[in-house]
């Protein structure tokens, strides 16, 4: 069979399923309101399109590399230490992500069983933290036993969630034509000024959420050289991807504006918004809670699978072929069945700390969901920085590498694009650290969120810097023991 059978539209659809989800719409609407429509258009034009095309060139240049971003960094810099840091970053940014999954499972289960968001509005942070910890530790243990069946089911649930996200947009946009007495929650939706953001400091602190939403394009790289004509078909597919993301982001945000007032966004929108939206639409269409329950069950299974997969997969990427020069032997230790015992243990300790941390500074679950979502938007994009560094170095050493697809032919222009995306990502991450809670409303929570948003990524990265020193000490110790024996 010819391995170059993929067409541009197939690649675009694969990438769309990887990148997009309803949470992207809900979370960003919760932060910016209806003006997020303009923000989506801007972020797609100045960031997402060049990001996706940059990944395309890297994937094409290093089509035989199995290590993804870390391999790109090693090939372009010839520096194993930087490659290790890239691999470490890819793994460690999943720690806050894993800490958030038990909450998402809990919220989805509450909507599926109770038909409302009371879990979010009634449970204490302490209770949520304890239950989330129990859920996480249970799946951490199960992951060591292998969860291949759950991952397959989760893949199907992920596709179903993707379909539900598109169904939400379709039903919301067509609702006014079916329900003639429907009133839009947001006023002035027929006026252009309603969609223009105020570009102040507060606005720029929300950009990290947009970057977080459109990130992850590096997952597309394996498909670049599988297209019939990478130089022509891949960029066409990425432009089509950007168009699909743009349409879904804009129409999804408009749909949210129809259902939730932009100038009076519910406090629990980030936690309960997606479920409430399906509940409201179900009532408009006369089918009650059916849509909401389907979405809640689908999301719950999807979140369970994401939790299991994200414990397992990033850890294997980091430790499967780890360089003994940088990763200590105790972290690479395997059981008789091949399980990375201490890798799971380290994951468990770090995630448990993040899960329990809010007990000391957050009062209610709504703020807890907002804080963890924002923390993820600060930490997760840190891995994209390595993509852009690799692309800059690729353009500096362009004579050494060949690729069927090139984003731009001029290496100097290519370097500028890489530097721009690197700087924009760093800018978004740094400003995203500023708490979204008002200082006057809760000074303690404001300081807690600021300190945790700044300290968490620093500690996670520093931990990765400590490991090579431990590995070096172990190596020297082994050498001495060998010399003594001989």
Automatic annotation (TrEMBL):
Short name of any one Pfam family annotated for the protein: AA_permease_2
Keyword rRNA-binding found: no
Subcellular location: Cell membrane
Gene3D superfamilies: Amino acid/polyamine transporter I
Keyword entries, A-Z: Cell membrane, Membrane, Transmembrane, Transmembrane helix, Transport
GO cellular component terms given for this protein: plasma membrane
GO MF, any single term: transmembrane transporter activity
Coiled-coil segments: none
Transmembrane segments: 37-62, 119-142, 154-178, 198-217, 238-261, 273-297, 341-362, 374-394, 415-434, 446-470
Repeat in keyword set: no
Record's bilayer topology term: Multi-pass membrane protein
Protein name per Swiss-Prot or TrEMBL: Amino acid permease family protein
């Amino acid at each position: 069979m010819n391995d170059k059978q993929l067409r541009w539209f197939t690649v675009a659809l694969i990438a769309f399923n990887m990148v997009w989800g309803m949470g992207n719409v809900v979370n960003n609407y919760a932060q910016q309101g209806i003006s997020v429509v303009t923000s989506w258009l801007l972020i797609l034009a100045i960031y997402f399109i060049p990001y996706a095309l940059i990944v395309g060139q890297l994937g094409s240049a290093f089509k035989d590399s199995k290590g993804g971003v870390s391999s790109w960094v090693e090939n372009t810099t010839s520096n194993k230490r930087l490659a290790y840091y890239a691999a470490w970053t890819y793994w460690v940014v999943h720690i806050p992500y894993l800490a958030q999954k038990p909450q998402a499972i809990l919220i989805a289960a509450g909507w599926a069983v109770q038909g409302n968001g009371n879990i979010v509005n009634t449970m204490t942070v302490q209770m949520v933290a304890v239950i989330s910890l129990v859920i996480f530790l249970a799946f951490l243990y199960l992951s060591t036993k292998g969860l291949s069946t759950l991952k397959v089911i989760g893949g199907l649930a992920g596709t179903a969630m993707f379909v539900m996200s598109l169904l939400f947009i379709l039903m919301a946009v067509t609702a006014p034509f079916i329900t003639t007495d429907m009133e839009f929650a947001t006023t002035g939706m027929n006026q252009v000024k309603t969609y223009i953001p105020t570009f102040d400091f507060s606005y720029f602190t929300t950009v990290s959420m947009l970057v977080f939403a459109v990130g992850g394009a590096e997952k597309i790289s394996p498909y670049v050289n599988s297209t019939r004509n990478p130089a022509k078909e891949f960029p066409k597919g990425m432009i089509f991807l950007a168009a699909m993301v743009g349409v879904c982001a804009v129409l999804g945000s408009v749909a949210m504006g129809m259902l939730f007032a932009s100038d009076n966004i519910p406090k629990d929108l980030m936690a309960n918004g997606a479920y409430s939206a399906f509940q409201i639409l179900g009532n408009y269409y006369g089918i009650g809670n059916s849509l909401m329950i389907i979405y809640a069950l689908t999301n719950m299974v999807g979140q369970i699978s994401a939790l299991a997969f994200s414990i397992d997969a990033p850890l294997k990427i980091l430790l499967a072929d780890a360089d003994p020069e940088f990763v200590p032997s105790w972290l690479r230790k395997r059981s008789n069945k091949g399980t990375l015992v201490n890798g799971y243990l380290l994951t468990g300790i770090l995630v448990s700390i993040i899960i329990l941390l809010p007990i000391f500074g957050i009062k209610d679950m709504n703020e807890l969901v907002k804080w963890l979502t924002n923390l993820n938007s600060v930490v997760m994009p840190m891995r994209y920085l390595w993509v852009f560094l690799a692309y800059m170095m690729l353009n500096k050493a362009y004579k050494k590498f060949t690729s069927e697809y090139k984003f731009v032919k001029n290496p100097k222009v290519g370097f500028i694009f890489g530097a721009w995306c690197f700087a924009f990502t760093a800018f978004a991450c740094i400003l995203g650290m500023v708490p979204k809670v008002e200082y006057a409303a809760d000074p303690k929570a404001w300081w807690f969120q600021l300190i945790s948003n700044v300290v968490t990524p620093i500690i996670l990265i520093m931990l990765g810097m400590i490991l090579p020193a431990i590995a070096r000490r172990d190596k020297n110790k082994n050498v001495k023991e060998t010399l003594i024996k001989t």
